[in-house]
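In response to a reviewer's request, we include the raw inputs and outputs for one of the modeled complexes. The three entities were modeled together in a single run.
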Amino acid sequence: MGCVQSFRELCDRQKNTNVRLSLPAVCIVWQTAMIILFGVFIRYNEESDAHWIEHRKAKNISSDIENDFYFRYPSFQDVHVMIFVGFGFLMTFLKRYSFGAVGFNFLIAAFGLQWALLMQGWFHSLDYTDGKIKIGIENLINADFCVAGCLIAYGAVLGKVSPVQLLVLTLFGITLFAVEEYIILNLIHARDAGGSMVIHTFGGYYGLAISWMLYRPNLDQSSRLQGSVYHSDVFAMIGTLFLWMFWPSFNSAITDHGDGQHRAAINTYLALASTVLTTMAVSSLFQKHGKLDMVHIQNSTLAGGVAVGTAAEFMLMPYGSLIVGFCCGIVSTLGYIYLTPFMEKHLKIQDTCGIHNLHAMPGVIGGIVGAITAAAATESVYGPEGLINTFDFVGDFKDMVPTQQGGHQAAGICVAICFGVGGGIIVGCILRLPIWGDPADDNCFDDEPYWELPDDEEMSV
Amino acid sequence: MGCVQSFRELCDRQKNTNVRLSLPAVCIVWQTAMIILFGVFIRYNEESDAHWIEHRKAKNISSDIENDFYFRYPSFQDVHVMIFVGFGFLMTFLKRYSFGAVGFNFLIAAFGLQWALLMQGWFHSLDYTDGKIKIGIENLINADFCVAGCLIAYGAVLGKVSPVQLLVLTLFGITLFAVEEYIILNLIHARDAGGSMVIHTFGGYYGLAISWMLYRPNLDQSSRLQGSVYHSDVFAMIGTLFLWMFWPSFNSAITDHGDGQHRAAINTYLALASTVLTTMAVSSLFQKHGKLDMVHIQNSTLAGGVAVGTAAEFMLMPYGSLIVGFCCGIVSTLGYIYLTPFMEKHLKIQDTCGIHNLHAMPGVIGGIVGAITAAAATESVYGPEGLINTFDFVGDFKDMVPTQQGGHQAAGICVAICFGVGGGIIVGCILRLPIWGDPADDNCFDDEPYWELPDDEEMSV
Amino acid sequence: MGCVQSFRELCDRQKNTNVRLSLPAVCIVWQTAMIILFGVFIRYNEESDAHWIEHRKAKNISSDIENDFYFRYPSFQDVHVMIFVGFGFLMTFLKRYSFGAVGFNFLIAAFGLQWALLMQGWFHSLDYTDGKIKIGIENLINADFCVAGCLIAYGAVLGKVSPVQLLVLTLFGITLFAVEEYIILNLIHARDAGGSMVIHTFGGYYGLAISWMLYRPNLDQSSRLQGSVYHSDVFAMIGTLFLWMFWPSFNSAITDHGDGQHRAAINTYLALASTVLTTMAVSSLFQKHGKLDMVHIQNSTLAGGVAVGTAAEFMLMPYGSLIVGFCCGIVSTLGYIYLTPFMEKHLKIQDTCGIHNLHAMPGVIGGIVGAITAAAATESVYGPEGLINTFDFVGDFKDMVPTQQGGHQAAGICVAICFGVGGGIIVGCILRLPIWGDPADDNCFDDEPYWELPDDEEMSV
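The model returned the following structure tokens for the whole complex.
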């Protein structure tokens, strides 16, 4: 670590946060590349193309309401709100980093979803007859999901990186995500409707590994800005609540039509309700005078939604959902109380938003819950057709049995962690190059380097 | 009242707001009980169970889109937003009680909806073949509705109670609600799609009766905290607008498929639009210099949605909806100007959010409008099948006629008021026990007793 | 202009902002008129009437899910959020005009939508058999659209007019809108699903012309209030994000069932993503030190949604959407940097929110994109039935060809501009009468004249 240390000092000496050339250059070049790649590769699929009317008649589909748009669009819009308002406002809790929280979240989400459409399209929606990716509403949802992984990672480095670094983080994050997702869902044939493994475990460890690589030993120089103020905590609750309310849509957005979406929504609704109670309990119990801590309410109340992601479409049973939520509220809140300080002090991982407690740990728990629930599936609970349907035991996998599926699910967790940690270390190395315009230690958690601020600012801190 | 007075003084002497033991204990015990009861009683219904695919074929249902999920999920999500963001942010108007408003609203809603699923399930969704409650999307909506009654009651005692008291209020509130709802909808056979009676009248009087029982003669000791600040009023408008916008979904969420949902949404949309204009008019007219008062805009603009709740699914006609909204905007705003101060001074009812003007009065008006509209229904307006459909004149009630239905509706109002007032008095007695950790008079409307506050707080008040 | 000048000075001399008589009078009289007109003219249509069940059987419609409600209600609710939260909060950026932004937006939207239902109903939904307007969910969406035009115009005069002036602006705006829309859509047979021409071009120029007529040479007297503060910029981002996220619903809300709605959502999603990147790029490039300007992020990121409005339902292709968004992000941001100051200085147009950059210019671009895309349509791309379907080549227009359609689209742009500019000048004249209670120059951008403000206000400015 000696050479790492000296390399780090070298980088720190000269901090120039002017992104006047790099940010526009990356945005314009990238957007131009997207236009070209979309021109070459992306077309409407048969449900969004004007030929739909002929397709409908040919396939004998009785009504326009059978178009996948009507099955998934309400869920898509809810997911969209989670990505932009949910993640964006959740990170506004810092007293002086609200512009960066909402604004950079906006930037990297808009940037990432285009690349996600391409990357995921190549793996999942490529029409081999003409070499085009055919997109519809499900692709938009998946692109939003893909972006979520990077926004989770942003939570770990919030306030410590430049927008250009975030674009690099997103570019590689989306790429890794698409590969990891393909391996887990298609090659390993694990199921992961709500993305406990694919999104949260990957995104969490990706962010933590990057934060570890970008460790700042003198971050206490900006400690005056690391807290919240009263109004910024209320803004953050907007993010929390929209995430919490729409999580049932997140976990059910791409599950099977009919009972699949229905069940996933119910399970998530219940798990989240349960989490709120145990989060409040632990928050009060471990604080002197029994006072509640807004950090816990803002974050740990969401852990149940993460942890029920994989199993939401399974026959987890309503009480099963409550149990998952119960445990995650406790684990996540204890994580904020004990683990986050421990990780910062002893593991040199500075995790601004505590994504380890909100995404990484609950994600792994969700993967395990999914593996157990899958392994325990029986034909009597699911019905013969229901079992095939739910676990997609068709094609190459038509001879699989639930216990096998449980093993595959477990393998999925490992892949997600490996991609997260490995990818994060590599990307973290790249982000340490002294060319990205990141802020100095005493300039962290401050909107000032990257935003024109209104005049009131000096007064309010 | 002499003994009541001395009992009250006894309670007030020693105020300990430390909920470090009681809050976690109630949460954990309750959540554990929920897990056990859900394990014993709650299962998926046929539309959310993995057997759906077989059920669908057996029942000859042509498509997954016929699953009730697709009829109701968008409305459910809107209702969900109303419960958590709508009610939560509406109460953030106080300058220093935003954490309590949003946070405790979150807590009791998550707590209440689980109990509501059980209570309502026993009355409405019990499958007698196996003794299980079978839940689907409609149960989730009803659970949210049930919770709304308690959140309304919270509005009356906002800032004056501890979180443990709120949990007790909710526990009993949900129980009373489920019984009252069963009596009104099933025994009396009144219709109440948007819950003017069942939710708003009950919730309003329940909260007012509790507030009356918890009367604090020296509440002016915390009068410095009873007002709003500029930003807290803007936060409250987030709540107002989400309630206002999604109220058509609230009133149409559980009405009949097809024209029922369609008509309920239209009627609510129109009633609310009309209310905004008369609220603004009265607010300006009764204020010196004609200035508008944010309290009225935040609250009275919603009264039309409450008052059209019962009749929204009937053939109220678009102009009928406008008339209802017109009257309620005036009544509700005048209530804020004259009734709330009167009630505080002469009736010893301290109603923090003015729920009497927003929920109780408009709820009763809504019940009356519903009774009149039902009594005036004719076959020529509804069509023979439409009449049976709308008023559910089937089974035991197949010989009912509209005038009878009008009487039943009127009976429903009385039941709601009785349950609200009676239940509130009993629960108010319980809440006066000196064991719940409620704040002292000079500590009301302050987040400080129950929340870890960021450092800025001293400055901003 | 000499006489205009002296007339203006006459008006300015005596400013009385007391609207205690005028505002209530207008609201009550107007609402009463609405009730009467609704009573005479407006009824439920066959999908929202209780006769639906009989209609359904007669028409052999297999399921309630075929009711238009289920095709459009989720989009309607998204549009509703855009109108009330989106437009309302977008305008809260001023440090001391948040009540006016959200509150007056609320007032005029609720006021306008009723008049819009009548005006648009007479043109589009009149049932000639009984002389009644029959309304359903599509009418509610169109009423919201119609209101959007006036809210855009409000953006130009934000902070400089009284609520009574806004009601007048809205009354005439809705009337002009309905006529203009009828000419463009029915007589000219242009297509304009997302309203680039009908809503944004019209609304933009309408507002700019009014602002020009109400030019205030001494507006710098209130320059201390023209900026934002930190928290007001965060509030404005709530508006921005809800507009941005739900714009796909806006552009797809009234397009054809099936592929039409599906494609419009995809195109809008892509155009908006692209706009974010180029907006950020230009904002950083043209600011010293490369810092981002919140004004651009709040507004220009939305330009792509405006510009793709007309063509969203066409086969614009995913890369086409990206190109439109790419250009609009640049044009709109440059507009804020160069055009807005130029217009204020040299053209005497004071455009508070910069609606020229967000609505007028992108609207015209959208009209042009629509014309080109329509003219370039071919049967091979759309399919024979798809072409007829998309461009509605039926009835009187069954012999039209795409190139003709392109010409009609171009004619539509001209009509929208003419109605906007012409109508704005006339309405501007009316609004200059010294009877409307508008604020003095040093009282602009201040909530104080029209709102009861909490005590903290003096401190926070």
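As requested, we also summarize the result in words. DSSP finds 18 helices and three strands in chain C. The longest strand of chain C covers residues 132-135.
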